[in-house]
Amino acid sequence: MKIQSPDQKCLHTALRLLARRDYSRAELAAKLNQRGFAARQIAQAIVECERMRYLDDTRFCHNYAAYLRRKGYGLLRIVPLLEKKGLADALVIDAVSQHFNHCTQVDDCRRVLVKKMRLEGLSEINIALRARLYRFLLNRGFATAVIGEVLAAGSRVCDQTLED
C-alpha cells in the first residue's frame, strides 16, 4: 500500500468526486472542505483538476442549465439554481443568453403544461384549473407573460425561429 501525502489525498478525493458527476469550483471546494482538507490543499487540487480539464465552470454552467431546462424549469427558477452553485454572474448570463429566448421559454412552458395536463388526465381548462396551472407554471420558474401567452394560445406551436 502506497502512502499518500495530504495533497495527494485531496487531489485523489477531488478526482473521485468528479468521476461521479460534474461540479462547479465552489461545490468541489465545499465538498473537499467538508472532508477536512486544508484550504491550500483544496486550492491546489482545484488548480490541478482544471489543468487536467476535469473541472470547468463554463462547461458545468451550460450543462446544468440545459439539464434544468430539460427537466421543465423556466428561466426564473434556473438562474437562482445556477447562482446557488457558486457560479460567476458572467457565466450565468452567458449560459442563459445561449440557451434561452422568448420562443424557447414559450415552447418549454407549453411542453410542461401539456405534460401536466396529460398526467392528470385533463383535456379542457376551466377557470379554477387555469389558476392552479398558472401557479404551477409560476412555481416552475416561467415568467408571467410567458404563462399568460401559453394559457391564452392553447396548443398552438411557437412560430418564431430560434436565435443562434
**What separation lies between the terminal Cα atoms?**
53 Å
Q: Given the structure, what is the number of helices? A: 9
Residue-averaged pLDDT = 88
What's the total count of β strands?
0
The percent range for strand residues is under 5%
The string of secondary-structure elements, in order, is HHHHHHHHH
* Low-pLDDT stretches: 155-164
Helicity, as a percent range: 55-70%
Could you say which overall geometry the principal axes of the C-alpha atoms support?
Answer: elongated
Rg calc: 21 Å
Number of domains: 3
Structural class: mainly alpha
The major β-sheet equals:
none
Explain briefly what this protein structure is.
This protein has 164 residues and is mainly alpha-helical.
Task: Please give a structural write-up.
With 164 residues, the chain is an all-alpha fold. It has three domains: 6-51, Arc Repressor Mutant, subunit A (Orthogonal Bundle), CATH 1.10.10; 57-99, Arc Repressor Mutant, subunit A, CATH 1.10.10; 102-153. The chain is 70% helix and 0% strand. The protein has nine helices and no strands. Helix 7 (102-119) crosses helix 9. The N and C termini lie far apart (53 Å).
Q: Which features would summarize this protein structure in a list?
A:
elongated; 164 residues; 3 domains; Arc Repressor Mutant, subunit A; 0% strand; 9 helices; mainly alpha
Secondary-structure topology with pairs:
Blueprint: H1 6-20, H2 25-34, H3 39-51, H4 57-70, H5 75-84, H6 89-99, H7 102-119, H8 127-139, H9 144-153
Helix pairs in contact: 1-3, 2-3, 4-5, 4-6, 7-9, 8-9
